[in-house]
Design goal:
The chain is about 0% helix and about 25% strand. It has no helices and 15 strands. The strands form 7 sheets. Strands 1-3-4 form a 3-stranded mixed β-sheet, with no helix packed on it. By secondary structure, it is mainly β.
Length: about 180
């Protein structure tokens, strides 16, 4: 994913990988899907290629796990866990978020005892970018009940709650 200056993005808190660059929008670049080696752009202001060892957790200097089962405004039925149980690198430059039908720790959700666990990460408080171009490689699961999303929120969300802080949906797919 790439963010390039001069377009307004005014957002933060992205899920999944993000590469931010200070290059002009017209600057040539190799799309991430066509890269054969490291995908890092030398003009990047922020990036994550998820290039850690298989099974390892995300880079804590870039991401924070959103933990809990509050439903997150969408009546979600899973409990989002911390660590790499549901959110881990695959050792091949991919972040894998896995939903599981389980409740090993008797997690409680907004609607009672949780039946599922999953993962949710955010860059909120770790990075912000007002102007730029954002680019990501995302493989989306199929199936009833799936709702993968990659979105950005205004970095003033703490004092200006959603939806007033703004939201940019980069990708959101209801798997029905």
């Amino acid at each position: 994913m790439r963010v390039r200056s001069p377009r307004r993005a005014a957002a933060t808190g992205a899920l999944l990988g993000l590469l931010l660059t200070g290059a002009a929008l017209s600057a040539p670049h190799t799309p991430a899907h066509a890269a054969t080696g490291p995908r890092a752009n030398p003009a990047a202001t922020w990036s994550d290629d998820f290039d850690g060892a298989a099974g390892s957790d995300v880079d804590g200097s870039k991401w924070t796990h959103d933990v809990g089962g509050s439903g997150w405004g969408n009546n979600e039925l899973e409990y989002y866990t911390d660590g790499n149980a549901n959110t881990a690198l695959d050792g091949q430059g991919h972040l894998v978020i896995t939903a599981k039908q389980e409740n090993p720790n008797n997690y409680q959700c907004w609607n009672g005892t949780c039946q599922y666990t999953s993962g949710k990460i955010t860059s909120a408080g770790k990075f912000t970018q007002q102007y730029g171009h954002i680019e990501a490689r995302i493989k989306v699961p199929r199936g009833q009940g799936m709702w993968p999303a990659f979105w950005l929120l205004g970095d003033d969300i703490g004092s200006n709650p959603w939806p007033n802080c703004g939201e940019i949906d980069v990708m959101e797919n209801i798997g029905a």
